Amino acid sequence: MGRIAGRFARVEPRRRAGRLVLGLLSDLPRKNCWTIAEWVGEATPHAMQHLLCRASWDADAVRDDVRDYVVEHLHDDDAVLVVDETGDVKKGTHTVGVQRQYIGTAGRIENSQVAVYLVYAGSRGQAAVDRELYIPREWTADTARCQAAGIPTQRDFATKPELATVMIERFLDAGHRASWVAGDEVYGGNPKLRTVLEARGMGYVLAVARSAEVATKAGNFRADALVGRLPKPAWQKLSAGAGAKGHRFYDWAVIDTADPGPGHRQLLIRRNRHTGELAYYRCHSPQAVPLSTLVKVAGSRWRVEETFQAEKGLAGLDEHRRFVSWTRWATLAMLAHAFLTVVRADEHTRPPAPDDLIPLSCNETQRLFITLVVQPVHDPAHRLNWSAWRRRHQARSQASHYRRQAATQT
């Protein structure tokens, strides 16, 4: 918290931000201003809500501090920047950026809010270092709706690849370096993003659809049409990384492409060893690299799912309705998760644990930190006061709903 202290205009919001981060690290089953305010010992949630909506502090500067903190402690010359979006199912139409759209967490089209994240993935761990809320075109075309949600007037519509490009360039312009970028088909199918990465001298392994057109010396072909031209020895069994149940082994093959421009360009193909399902990746590297390197980068894409799971489960990432409060909440959730990731990474540099214990995970680090260091204990009066506050607030809300209903029926 000392690293971000200078981003606050007053000491009170700085201290309250520290308490909010502790609440995000807590074992509360649901994390919002109400539950965290009660957990840290405040009488009402109003001060926490003020911190997120109106207090004077620079969330983008804190975001930059989080990025610097992560890179400093997880530094890896072969790090991969993974771009991906995550969505959260929402009710109603007032939550900023919400619309009916496909989200991977539900596996279907839902009324949801979607954000794009940039994750720094190195050998010591991974953590989000940037975030951008996806604002659909139907929102940016409605000035009144944007104003009601607190979206800045200068915010224009931007696609998810465009948001990813902004975050990657922000990372590089800050003086940080990463060797590779990985992402799914949303990003691999965008030629502008690929052009920017090539101009910045970055390698990438980006998924593409099977219908993607690939240029070869023999002509242009769909990606899936090239699979039948591969001889059997072209496939190699390689691990895309360790998972919870062991290594993720697939069959892999690579084809050199004839796309113009400097560097080495290839089509990477992954085949499931049990189902035969195929996946395709456009690859670019400033210098020639072995197939194993491309496979390792492709496997880094899955690490972003672990980051989202941890940030939502351990740090309450998926909350808030207005643009300013979403930005601030997401930034502090990234900070909370980055803290757990760095502590875990530092613990792994110590003498190894006994053979019958796995290394500390972020989940176990959180449990130990809250239990041994900051577990708050509140007397019955505090709990009873909060019970009365909730019931009083709920009574006012219920009365308001009944008055509104009565007004519409007359």
Automatic annotation (TrEMBL):
Pfam families: DDE_5
Transposase IS701-like DDE domain: residues covered: 11-221
Coiled-coil region list: none
PANTHER family for the chain: TRANSPOSASE
Protein name, UniProt field: IS701 family transposase
Organism field: Pseudonocardia yunnanensis
